[in-house]
Write a structure and sequence with these properties.
- The complex is a heterodimer of chains A (122) and B (194).
- Chain A is mostly helical and 122 residues long.
- Chain A has 4 helices and no strands.
- Chain A has helices at residues 15-38, 43-64, 73-104, 109-120.
- In chain A, helix 1 packs antiparallel against helix 2.
- The longest helix of chain A has 32 residues, at 73-104.
- Chain B has 194 residues and is mainly alpha-helical.
- Chain B has one domain (3-190): Four Helix Bundle (Hemerythrin (Met), subunit A) (Up-down Bundle).
- Chain B is elongated and about 65 Å long.
- Classes of the chains: A mainly alpha (122), B mainly alpha (194).
- At the A-B interface, helix 1, helix 2 and helix 3 of A face helix 1, helix 3 and helix 6 of B.
Amino acid sequence: MKKIQIDHHHSPVKYISYIVGFVLSIATTLLAYFFVVNELFSKNVLIYVVMGIAVVQLVVQLVFFLHLGRGNRWKVITFAFAVLVVLIVVVGSLWIMQNLDYNMMQMSPDQMTEYMNANEGI
Amino acid sequence: MTRAEEEVAMYEKKTLGFWIYLMTDCVLFAALFATFAVLRNATAGGPGGPELFDLPFVLVETLILLTSSFTIGMALLGSVRGLKKQTLVWLFVTFALGIVFLSMELYEFMVLIGEGHGPQQSAFLSAYFTLVATHGIHIAVGLLWMAVVIVRLLRHDFKKTDVNRLALLGLFWHFLDIIWIFIFSFVYLIGGMA
């Protein structure tokens, strides 16, 4: 078979990188699953543990599979910007909706209508 | 610039362009995740995550997708080294794993809808179906793309442009893997807690 010549202008990606990434992502998935199924912590703690493990997995995949940081610098910059937008969208939505829930919580639907009539001019 | 250098520069540009597309896709998924998070308790008297989700089933789905992310990496490494056979074998494995993943997801949807828990039952289920199915559609498009790459490799000689194309497909596939990890963690694990 004729081999084609590919030039590696960056250091070539190695098998070991994919194998380490694969093992780590399987291990972290099983770990998160194990924690949740066996309810090792209280629910509130568990939520943060699962979130933490998800972030670790994100980093593992970015480093070992996507090789972020190799090649064009703009990749890192656009990635950082995307993370910022994602956080604003997700955290912002939750924050706003929680606030609305909090403000409306003590009211019955009739009271809410009255409140809105009085305050919002509807 | 020599022709080879021009090609490298062009490929770098394409990779960055594709990367920026992936980042905008992140924002799309962020909106869907935020919607799901806000509506997670809006079950309209119907069942919520703990009653509906079959965690062992989803764990198998996750492991299959993670494995496919690894196997496409193997295909890419094969192609970088100019090994056509290795590339094709790993691509076939990835394709098969992708099909299994997608079938499992469709089966899960069919079971839910069959039991009357379709997207129209509650805001929670609407958000769930929208988020997970959007990921599923991406996987389906990825599989189509992969099929095109496989057919090209089977019918034509191995060219450098094939390697570049495969590298972009690899990026897309790893990206979908990352999105799924977040679906698994936030929707199924956290959303499935009693």
